[in-house]
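for the writeup, i need someone to sanity check this before i put it in the appendix. the sequnce is what the collaborator sent (i think, or maybe the updated version? ugh). structure was predicted straight from it, no edits. if anything looks off just tell me and ill rerun, i have time this weekend
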Amino acid sequence: MDDIYDVHGTLEELQLLTNAIQKWDVGAMDKLPEYMKVYFHALLNTISEIEEGLMPDEKYRAPYLKEAIKCLNTAYFNEAKWFHSGHHPTFEEYINTALISSAYPLLIIVSYIGMDGIVKKEAFDWINSNPNLVRSASIIEQERGHISSSVELYMKEHSCTEMESCEKLREMVSVAWKDINKDCIKPTPVPMPLIIRIVNLVRVIEVLYQYRDGYTNSTHETKERITLVMVDPIPI
C-alpha cells in the first residue's frame, strides 16, 4: 500500500483504491487498474485468512484490524493529495497524519491479533483511543524513519536553521521516550506483556535509525549487530 501511494498511483487511481478499501468490498475491484486489483485481492484474502484462523471467541478482533487498515489508507491518501496538489501542510498537520502513516498503530493491533487469552476487547479499545504510549511510539518511529520531511517542514514554518530544526525533533524524541518510560512504570490500563510489545516495536526503530537509515542501508551498524547476535554470539 505504501509503495502504491508513494510511487505508482496517479491521484485518480488512488481515489479508486481508497474508495475500495474504505468500502472493503470485493465488488469495487472491477473499477481498479490491473496492478491495483492484484494488491486489493491480496489484501482482502490475507485479512480473510487471518479472520478464519481466529478462535470463535476471538472473531471480534478482525473488525479492529480492518479499521486500522482503513485509517492507514486514509493517511496515505491524504499525503498523496498533498504531494499531487503541491500543498505544503503545517508541521502539526504533517505530524498528526504521519503518526498514522508510520503504521505503528496498525502494527500494534497486528501484534495483538494472534495472541492468546491475555488480549481482551478492552486492549483493542485502548489502542483505538490513541493513548499517549501509542502516540509516543509513533513519534519516535516517524522522527527516526522520516526525519528529512519533518526537518524541512519545521524549518520552513519556523524560519529556523536545519540544525535548530533537528534539535527540535531530537527533543520530541527524547520527550516521547520519557513518556514511554513513565507509562511503563505506573499502573497500566492493559497487561504489561501488551505494553512491552509496543516498547519493543519502538526499540527496533531506535536500533535501525540511531546513526543512519540502517533499514535501507544495512551494511553498517545493522549488519554488525545482526552478526553479533546471530553469527558470532557471546558464549554463555
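The chain has two domains: 1-87, 89-231. DSSP finds twelve helices and no strands in the chain.
thx in advance!!
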